[in-house]
Amino acid sequence: MCLFYMSIYAAIYLPVDLFFYYYEQKLKVGCWLQVKEGQTEDVVEVDGHDNPFLCCGSEVVDGSARMLVTAVGKNRWTQKIHLQGEMINQSQLLISVIRKFGHAMAFVILLVKLAHLFSGKISDGQGKRIIIGGGEPIPIVDVLKALVGIVATPAMVAATSAPEGLLLAVKITFVYSMKRMLNDDNVVLRRPSLCDAIGSVTTICTNMTGSLIDYDEVKEFCLGLRSVEQITTNLAAPAVIELLHQGIGLNAGLFQSPQNPIEKVISDWASQKTGMSIESLNRNCTILEIKPFSSMDRQSAVLIRKNGDNKIHAHHKGAPEVIIPSCSHYYEADGTVKLINQDALLSLDQILEGMSKNGLRCIAFAHKTTSTRDCFPGRQLILLGLVGLKNSLRDGVEDVVKDCQRAGVNIKIITGNNIQTARAMAMKCGVVGANEQPGEVVQRLEFRQYIQEERMEKVVNICVMAEASPQDKLLMVQCLKQKGHVVAVIGCGIGDVQALREADVGLCLGTKGADIAWACSDIVIQEKNLASVISILSWGRGIFEGVQIYTQFLLITSFVALVTDFVMAISTGETPNIGAVALLSAGKVPYPVLQIMWVKLMMDTLTALAVIMKQPAEELMNRPPRGRNGPLMTNIMLGNIMVQALYQIAILLTIHLKGKSIFNVDPNANGTFILNTYVLCQIFTIFNVEKNVFQDIRKKKLFWGIIGIIIILQVLMVEVLDRFADTARLDWGRWGTSFALAAVSWPISWIVTCISELEAAIFSSSNWPKSEYGVK
């Protein structure tokens, strides 16, 4: 029996154990990840030794590895994030304040009406006074009728006080604007709740490679200490050419994307100029271990063995400032190896400085023979050569930078290139001017050496940070956010992941070869068109402006309706709804419900569609951003709301109290005249809050169509549906008077806006305290 179980184990479990052992040894070297697990923000290191397990739901921050899936199940981690935009929060706060104000008014109306009831100022339908607690006994039915009539008015005021359409308008804005933006710019929006943050961006941090520049060709190559235009077998020793082929063709980053532009340009150059064959290298050499490119080390390495040879060759490739200090010797073109002394270091520094000033991206290659396959030598390397890649600005980059600067959005370049190359390209695209100021271009070490207070003071003035690691990008974004900036990060690679997650808005350029960056981004620009960034910012600002316009309109209409209803309810002792029970029993409605429904429809839906569903105005990108704590309501808006509301309240109450004597209105048509004037006032309120209504009329067909619908429905309400809407027909004189009274609000709004803008201009030009984004 024992032999039977042993044979079962040998047949089944032993191959499995050997399989896992093989993969453990295969993946042991060069497998290292930094991940964020579940909903935590802590970074966990996963490697092939101490912590080899990667759980489902984790997000890779840095590193690379092979992964063997062993199990999946119901206990895997999932992330469910509920996000809500700041604009929605402010809108809900306004709704809550107006609702409480309406409920307070309704309560006061109830108290006043009860006081009228107990003081004998309320009469029944036959003109008989109802006095509680004195006089003749009152039938309980009459008392109930009186109470129902008294409660009906404050109940109506409370029910119609909250501008629920504000939240609806915000959501309509999000849906419409995002749909148009996605269709126009080939964009994937992964977090719709960031619409308000997009329009508030004050700073954009971007990498140089993959975002601003493209690599076209290898412009310069240095073998030893001399620059050569073209490598031939006559110029360089075959042994040096062979090592160079191994370093370029086999140390291409097994775990990196084949779309990596640097790898592709160097590989194409080596194939065309030096006769390198990837197929021949793969056939004649065996890759033993790989150390993938690390954003921290800024280099990659590979251990290989030639078939039929017991020697192990280590090839390193990366930034010259990392590779050259690890080299003790260098190859001459004839294959001789020479010591890197002080003169050689000086020559290498001059070569690198010349490449950098010309805007070239420099990559260094080094080699060493070793006898241990489990160790990558970090010292005593032999320098093979230096490759200088020509980079050119992408189409439209200069225009994008100018548009951002015009819109008050700062551009900061955070790149792994050396400081000379970064400075040259930043000047070329306009991020740094010809007269560079101290502190605009810094190195990562300088930025790291700042104390916290000094770093927070200088971070705003930094335009370029060179030789930066992912941690430096993350630190820059954190400092800017602490300063109150709304930060957007543009990235496309694994080194940008931490900054993309930390940023208020993360934008990923392209979807190929950047799966991790795509997963950590809020917006993906699929065609790598940097001009789409300007369009996204414009749509974000347009969304916020649309909500501001509708909020201003809704506050005016709601405040006017509340105050007017309040005064009209307490100014008369005769409650119009005293017979509410009798009317309900007869199948009639005690309130003009159709009028209420019409006003709510106009304010909550039609007006929202008119002022929100539109293209963002071009002038939005000429204004500074509102910043992180920018309010939904500005001083100009508040001034216009107060003046417009006071004017409309004065006009409507004048009609209510003196309509017969001043406007010669029939008492039976006085309520209709008030309703008509109120609706026409709101039409002109739309003109007041919507600037430049007559500009580009062809592009505002929806706006003018809805205005026409409102006017037509109002005419039908008064002149045709008078029986159903409980309205009275008005003659041409009353229509003209309503129109004239409503039109007066237009010049009033213009005067208020001019005064507010003049006041803001005076404050901005004086020594008044200013915030970072404008006048407080």
Automatic annotation (TrEMBL):
Presence of keyword Transmembrane helix: yes
InterPro entries: ATPase_P-typ_cation-transptr_C (IPR006068), ATPase_P-typ_cyto_dom_N (IPR023299), ATPase_P-typ_TM_dom_sf (IPR023298), HAD-like_sf (IPR036412), HAD_sf (IPR023214), P_typ_ATPase (IPR001757)
Main location: membrane
Residues of the Cation-transporting P-type ATPase C-terminal domain: 590-752
Positions of transmembrane segments: 549-571, 632-653, 673-690, 702-721, 741-763
Keyword terms: Magnesium, Membrane, Metal-binding, Transmembrane, Transmembrane helix
GO molecular function, one term: metal ion binding
Location of the protein in the cell: Membrane
Pfam family, one: Cation_ATPase_C
A GO cellular component annotation in the UniProt record: membrane
Protein name: Cation-transporting P-type ATPase C-terminal domain-containing protein
Organism the protein comes from: Ilex paraguariensis (yerba mate)
